[in-house]
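User: Before I run my own analysis I want an independent prediction to cross-check against. Here's the chain; please return only the structure tokens and, at the end, one sentence I can use as a sanity check.
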Amino acid sequence: NLFYFFGAQQPDVVHVHFGMSGRFKVEAVPGSEPTPTTRLRLEDDCVVAQLSAMTVQLGTAELFEVKRRALGPDPLREDADPERLWAAMQRTKRTIGEALMDQAMVAGIGNIYRAEILYCAAVHPALPARRCSRALFRRVWAESVQLLRRGFTDGSIVTVTERLEVSDGRRRYVYNQ
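Assistant: Structure tokens:
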């Protein structure tokens, strides 16, 4: 989930959910032509920004607050509180794989990241979330932070690293294998 604010006093808010293949591209004017999946195009005298996403919703600051309150801690944020996720995992009957995909428990993890995070943390997705030890939880949270930040920085979901290297050029360890 990504939020853009336009205006200072009573801002318009654009809520974006990228899904598995969303993209935000900024180019110098005139920019490329919109694609069939372009949901939003912003343009000024210098740059063109085009957004392809699963969801694009325009609202007010109230939309932001409603969405923010419904989301769990976001591993991309420095101020994320992993204890919120730990507490939610102790209350749920779900597996850890299901819990990681619940945006109310932890924000930003979809199916690809769920598979890759759990593989890198050496945790089976069918483990009941409330049976996860503190040590396993810390590994899962650390992998979540590392992999989501890498994806954000690279603009792509690439999870293979030097510490768990594979030799066949794959971008991911388990998803699509």
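Sanity check: The longest strand covers residues 12-17.
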